[in-house]
Amino acid sequence: MSLIPSATVPESSTISMPPIVTHQSSSDRAYRWNRTNYSRRRRKFDIWAFFITFLNGSWIDGRKWSYLGGYTEAKQAARRRRQAIWIRDTFLELGPTFIKLGQLFSTRADLFPVEYVEELSKLQDRVPAFGYDRVAEIIERDLGKPIPELFASFEPVPLAAASLGQVHIARLHTGEEVVVKVQRPGLHKLFTIDLDILRGIAKYFQNHPKWGQGGRDWLGIYDECCKILWEETDYISEGQNADTFRRNFRSADWVKVPRVYWRYSSTRTLTLEYLPGIKISHYEGIEAAGLDRQQIARQSATAYLQQLLTDGFFHADPHPGNVAVDPKTGALIFYDFGMMGRIAPGTKEKLMDTLLAIAGRNADRVVNGLVGLGAVAADADTDPIRRSIQYLLDNFLDKPIEAQSVSQITDDLYDIAYGQPFRFPATFTFVMRAFSTIEGVGKGLDPDFNFMAAAQPFAFQIMNSNGNSTPDANTFLAEIGRQAAQVGSSALGLPRRLEDTIEKLERGDIKVRVRSSETDRYLRRLGAIQQSTNSAILAATFTLSATMLFVTNNTLPAGVFGMFAAIALVAWFRQSRKVDRQDRMS
After folding, report:
1. CA spacing 20 to 30 A to 373: which of 36, 348, 366, 395?
2. Contact call for residues 169 and 155 (beta carbons, < 8 A)
3. Of 197, 200, 199, 231, the residue nearest 94 (C-alpha)
4. What count of other Cβ atoms lies within 10 Å of the Cβ of residue 507?
């Protein structure tokens, strides 16, 4: 949930703030899920109805005969776009669980077509607020005292409302201004019901002929999503994340993190220091406040790179709604620490090896690096992945690294990922999304901003074997030299390995098998088409015969021929599905 409090800035500027919404707002729709108690039977019906409709729509969209005027890729893409918009709107109708799932799936271009990813990224977490009476009930139950005893003042109208909760401005009896984040009532029960239903759907997808192909681990994806969703509902964990984040930047006066008031916090209530700021994407407001936009762009990149490459603890959702700028000092203000990422030990080195392989246009080492990072299954068929990556390296990454765009690299990677045995971990997708977001904001602040150039000092720091925080170009050269030595060693050993291989061939220890897979697939497809055509002709012949016999009052023979027509029609349908599967695999 984004939180951008108001700030004092020059009158010529405006502050971009979340709309203040209440449960009585006429502009908001009355959602069935916006209640305390939920019917498991009703939720199961609504959720399964959505997925059955989705699967049927996907099946029809994949059939070339369903396109009026003939099939084209443009028509299919337009259909997918319409379905993606419907999915986005339905997720909002289904409520908090699916709003959060949609936001998570918007990073998974390895699982879904690009149209789905783009539409889900537009999913707005703006929903009706719940009433003040429920807010007071939750606070009193969790903190043990009524609101007047806890706060000197408490604004009953929320500053902002989102799917998981809403935020109110308040003042402590000691005089400090705070914001109080209160969880939506009944959220735990709703998550429990929805996630139990979704486990059954994940099992179905695991065995589905289309969505389960390529070794996709839908149950693993389900477990990962559950972990993220439950963590976001625990405000104690969010408060601890905020404290850790603030400690990591304690020596940087250009980063501010709201202080947590633990005396006024619980698993469903979180009280934070009130730090107003200008939304970081409100470029005109920043300039009107007399702040240096170029410096803010550099600081935003530096702050995230420190989180990722130095601290190993990073904000997993740094969209413009969660980052603001202090109107007086220009310091960055971070909000909402419910979704955080952690870099496992050794991952930074693996990431660096992968980046060096990309710089060296070495597809084999890139694949090995992706396997080490967990983006590709160790037992997957890596040949098609290697060919796709080599094509990407040869045709797209033809500019110096400092001239590369993170967004373009991400888009190219996701283009080749869909339909391949990639399995991007949550950490990987969070990092790539954050990189793209920060690059976009940086270019909005400073048109000459380049994220890859800003990242170079941190890359040198990682490669510094002495652990020195000062970037060292000699270390980079030493790393390149080490790789060159590895290549030379491999080249010197190559003749001996070739000689051993030839000896094994002569002894018969190695059998060479040549497969014409493309020809075999083509012949199988022709055979299936022929059988489908024969079944269609038989079905038409039997149907016509049955009709003529029925018209002439020969009921019994008509029934027999009708039965034969039905059998032929079923055979035609099965062969048509077989042809469709072969088309998808080719």
Report:
1. 395
2. yes
3. 197
4. 8
CA distance 201 to 218: 9
> What is the amino acid identity at position 392?
L
Residue the block writes with tokens 């390149």: 480
| Active site residues per annotation | 317
Distance CA 228, CA 446 (A): 34
Non-local (6+) Cβ contacts of 213 within 8 A are: none
Instruction: Kindly give the pairing relationship between strand 340-342 and strand 313-315.
Output: antiparallel
| pLDDT tens string 362-376 | 888 888 887 877 777
User: pLDDT, tens digit, for every residue of 4-24?
Assistant: 454 444 433 333 333 333 333
Pair 423, 476 in one domain: no
**pLDDT of amino acid 181:** 97
What is the three-class DSSP state of 418?
A: coil
Residue span of the structural domain in which 491 resides: 472-512
C-alpha to C-alpha distances, 151 to 29, 146, 238, 300, nearest whole angstrom: 32, 9, 22, 34
Q: What is the per-residue pLDDT across 513-535, written as a single tens digit (0 to 9) for each?
A: 444 445 556 566 666 666 666 66
Does residue 5 contact residue 277 with C-beta atoms inside 8 Å? yes
**Are residue 319 and residue 406 in the same domain, yes or no?**
yes
Query: CB-based burial of residue 406 (10 Å sphere; 0-12 exposed, 13-18 middle, 19+ buried)?
Result: buried
The verdict on 446 and 567 lying in the same domain is: no
Count of positions (residues) in the chain: 586
Tokens, residue 127 = 């929903």
Q: Are 266 and 138 in contact (CB under 8 A)?
A: no
- Give dist(CA 581, CA 107) in Å, integer: 27
Quote the number of domains for the chain: 4
